[in-house]
Amino acid sequence: MKKELIVYVEELVGRYPSLKDSEQDICRAYRILEESYSAQGKLLVCGNGGSAADSEHIVGELMKGFCLPRALNPTLKQALLQVDTAYGGKLADKLQGALPAIALTGHSALSTAYLNDVDGLLCYAQQVMGYGSTGDVFLGISTSGNSKNVLYAAVTAKAKGLKVIGLTGKSGGALADYADVCIRAGASETYQIQELHLPIYHCLCLMLEKKFFE
Question: How far from chain centre, in Å, is Cα 183?
């Protein structure tokens, strides 16, 4: 990994020394994400409660500018202008480059219909079934590592050829068994794990943005 990307992980561990044991797993997770995005893949992410909010947060950082400008390439700008001079001009100026990511937590009509008609614990798995393709990445966030709906989604992801990243607490739980990489935050209390999850995924988002948009 390039030195300019490693520095983000070093800074993270400097600010949060308890993440020292997670350093290599963070780097491995980054490489999985970089490989997927380089091949035009996408990220599917989910969790429950605070981890559901984290899922939406991650998508927000990836789908628009985070810390760097993400100007569109000239070819796309020209294509927008060719469609419509006025609307295309504004779009060419305002749209930003994106790393495609979908939070499986936000589709209430689909999730409640599936809960009512089939099985609520499989709502995330059903979305992985529909959205996921070989080469994509599934990120399951669970402080215990044992959230059943996240585990069902992880099993589905593996079966469909997605790489699986787990973001958990210290134990890793059952999710660690299905994950290609499991990033374990070095804490056991839920709120302490969540306090560490945010800087971890911010670090990953910063590294990806630097790679694809600097």
Answer: 13
The length of the chain is 214
Q: What is the identity of the amino acid at 69? A: P
Helix (H, G, I), strand (E, B) or coil at 23: helix
CA distance 193 to 63: 25
Confidence category of residue 53, pLDDT binned at 50, 70, 90: very high
162, exposed or middle or buried, with CB in 10 Å at 0-12, 13-18, 19+? buried
Residue 208: exposed, middle, or buried by beta-carbon count in 10 A (0-12, 13-18, 19+)?
Answer: buried
User: Using one digit for the tens of pLDDT, what is the confidence trace for 89-129?
Assistant: 999 999 999 999 999 999 999 999 999 999 999 999 999 99
Nearest-angstrom CA–CA distance, 138 and 141: 10
Ramachandran bin of 101, using left for φ above 0, alpha for ψ from -120 to 50, beta for the remaining angles: beta
CA–CA dist 140, 175 (Å, integer):
8
